[in-house]
Specification:
Elements: E1 2-4, E2 24-28, E3 33-37, E4 41-46, E5 54-56, E6 67-72, E7 76-82, E8 89-94, E9 98-105, E10 114-133, H1 136-139, E11 144-147, E12 153-157, E13 160-166, E14 171-173, E15 176-184, E16 188-197, H2 208-223, H3 233-245, E17 247-248, E18 253-254, E19 277-278, H4 282-291, H5 295-309, E20 319-320, E21 331-332, E22 346-347, H6 358-372, H7 381-395, H8 414-434, H9 440-457, E23 459-460, E24 465-466, H10 493-506, E25 507-508, E26 511-512, E27 530-531, H11 532-544, H12 548-559, E28 571-573, E29 578-580, H13 586-600, H14 605-610
Length: 630
């Protein structure tokens, strides 16, 4: 519970509050998402898609860049939760005069995106205030506000329009729409903010109770399909709900995060746009979804992958937009000051143009695992795979920018070569296990050549460990995945010694950094947080090499980093004890799910991926977990 001393009115020309990253909750409609702070302020929302321009951008600037706060006038304490099995957020505010509950949600999108906010009195009488400052085009365009004949307000700037409907009194004040009202016990006020194109007729209002019931039914029907994960079932389900919320339902694409430019180091410049879909996430996403029983979502993600990468093999990208667009031009937003003055704010991502050889392995592995999981064959997939392998055969020896998308120039990254090995290995397995036609002898020769190259040039005999780059001494946390991808068995002394070296050099306060940014020239100033996915990978490595107690202890330490509603960002700052990086981060939640399954399931994702056993297929999957609601 947190106590707020801020009271209304506020100075409208000053940033009155900047929430910590961990103080945000997520609501969404499976096409876009909003971040709601503990103070009742929605500080980030892009419409109509995850990667569209924002209409609320206070997260990366000030309230003058757009936000919508609904909260008590007086100082208050706060408690939050999601309704179990849903993405419906309940925030309870307690003041000396009484208590209210604000319920925030976005109904599953049909024609347009909507945010619904319901204010209900619990006891006493509470003076409330709503203040809406919509700012289109990433916080710069102030809309023209008009009253509608049918009731409500329209907020228009060019092609964009918001429609605000409420049974609370509303008025304009200093370029905001504000409303002051008192809520007593058992009373309620409602707000619905809808988005549409400004040149279309205004979409008619819908009954609030129907919107709430439809949203609750959607999420609970979805949650009931989740397979149990023993003592971690609740944590796994919350992560899967978050992953579902980051899915663009029309295409099946899953964005890496709902945000852009939340810093990897507070005040630093490692600020990237993550509102896109990474091929690199493919296999781990599929294993997490299939392991939890979500085969429809896994199939939709697999099909998105095949559509996105289809085309000339030499034009394979590491990431695409939610419907597969390839042009993700990066530019900086000069009028946004950045989260806690972390500049620049970037839109788009120039890394989409980089050569990163590991994505070939990720793609081949994902399609192989989808076959093993019983998803059925995508008719286009195998032809695309064969063309990509033919291209990879000619380029695997080239330097690349690596899994972490460094901007210090291409190098011979060890993990990139390992994943090139994975690409040929999975193609051979697909051909031999599923009767796919291909030049198996040629692929086998290349696979063996890559394996020998990595073992000779990627392993440092003096240090007794694999290294980040051929011929250089630095370590890299991606090497924790060597046994998980099946490159070497877990009991191999080189695997164990590499895990031990990473423990010594890349672990701080029990958590793992990707690499030493002060020792590796990645084209940026040094400094970033502990990378949460890598920390989960260390727990997985512990489990594979027989250190089960260490795996469980680390996993439970990572669970403790989640915020009050179960969300994780990309990284963790151990000195400031804060979440940093884009939020919520799909990769962190995917890693959480897979580690939980490694610790609780007979079908362990790390063993399945490495080829030790096959995933129970869709037609043979275990009974539903039977989620319980209170």
């Amino acid at each position: 519970m947190r106590r707020w001393n801020q009271t209304w009115p506020i100075r409208l020309d000053k940033r009155f509050f900047m929430a910590r990253i961990e103080e945000y909750a997520l609501i969404g409609d499976c096409e876009t998402a909003a971040l709601v702070g503990s103070d009742g302020s929605i500080d980030w929302l892009c419409l109509p898609r995850f990667d569209s321009d924002s209409c609320f951008a206070k997260l990366l600037g000030s309230e003058n860049n757009g936000c919508w706060r609904v909260a008590p006038v007086a100082s208050h304490s706060v408690e939050r939760r999601y309704l179990p099995g849903t993405l419906i957020l309940e925030t309870t505010f307690r003041t000396d005069q009484g208590s209210v509950r604000v319920t925030d949600f976005m109904p599953p999108k049909s024609d347009n995106s909507q945010i619904v906010r319901i204010v209900e009195g619990l006891d006493g009488q509470v003076a409330m205030r709503s203040e809406l400052a919509a700012r289109f085009d990433y916080g710069v365009s102030v809309p023209w506000v008009s009253r509608l004949d049918e009731g409500g307000l329209s907020l228009v700037a060019g092609p964009s329009m918001l429609v605000l409907r409420s049974d609370a009194p509303l008025q304009g004040q200093k370029m905001r729409t504000v409303g002051s009202f008192v809520v007593s016990a058992a009373e309620r006020r409602t707000f619905v903010l809808s988005h549409q194109m400004s040149y279309r007729d205004v979409v008619p209002a819908m009954e609030i109770s129907q919107l709430l019931e439809r949203t609750q039914r959607f999420w609970r029907d979805w949650s009931e399909r989740c397979k149990a994960a023993g003592p971690y079932s609740d944590e796994v389900l919350r992560s899967l709900i978050t992953l579902k919320a980051l899915t663009f339902r029309p295409s099946g694409g899953i964005v890496a995060a709902a945000t852009t430019s939340l810093p990897e180091q507070l005040g630093g410049s490692r600020n990237w746009d993550y509102r896109f879909c990474w091929v690199r996430d493919a296999t781990l996403t599929l294993l997490a979804l299939m392991g939890a029983g979500y085969y429809e979502e896994a199939r939709a993600w697999r099909d998105w992958l095949v559509r996105a990468v289809a085309g000339s093999p030499d034009q394979l990208q590491i990431m695409y937009a939610v419907t597969g667009e390839r042009r993700l031009t990066e530019w900086e937003v000069p009028w946004l000051s950045g989260y806690e003055n972390s500049k620049p704010v970037r839109i788009g991502n120039a890394a989409h143009q980089q050569l990163q050889l590991d994505v070939y392995g990720e793609l081949m592995d994902a399609l192989y695992q989808s076959r093993r999981g019983g998803l059925g064959e995508n008719k286009r997939a195998w032809a695309v795979q064969c063309a990509l392998l033919d291209h990879l055969k000619s380029i695997w020896t080239e330097p690349d920018e690596g899994i972490w998308e460094v901007r210090g120039g291409p190098k011979q990254f060890t993990y990139s070569k390992i994943m090139a090995w994975v690409a040929f290995d999975r193609a051979i397995r697909s051909a031999t296990e599923f009767g796919m036609e291909g030049p198996i002898d040629d692929w086998s020769a290349v696979r063996d050549l890559i394996h020998a190259d990595v073992c000779q040039r990627g392993y440092d005999e003096n240090r007794k460990c694999f290294v980040q780059v051929y011929g250089e001494p630095q370590l890299d946390a991606s090497l924790l995945l060597i046994p998980a991808v099946g490159f070497l068995p877990p009991e191999d002394p080189r695997v164990i010694s590499t895990v031990n070296a990473i423990e010594r050099e890349l672990v701080a306060d029990g958590f793992v950094r990707r690499y030493d940014t002060s020792a590796t020239n990645d084209g940026l100033p040094p400094g970033e947080g502990m990378f949460l996915a890598c920390s989960f990978w260390l727990a997985d490595a512990y489990q594979l090499i027989g250190r089960d107690a260490d795996a469980k202890a680390l996993f439970e330490r990572l669970l403790a980093l989640r915020n009050d509603v179960g969300l994780l960002s990309e990284e963790y700052d151990v000195a400031k004890r804060r979440l940093v990086g884009n939020f919520p981060q799909a990769f962190s939640h995917i890693a959480l799910v897979n580690t939980a399954h490694n610790l609780t399931h007979d079908d362990k994702p790390s063993e399945i991926r490495g080829g030790k056993k096959a995933l129970t297929s869709e037609g043979q999957r275990a009974p539903r977990g039977g989620a319980k609601y209170v």
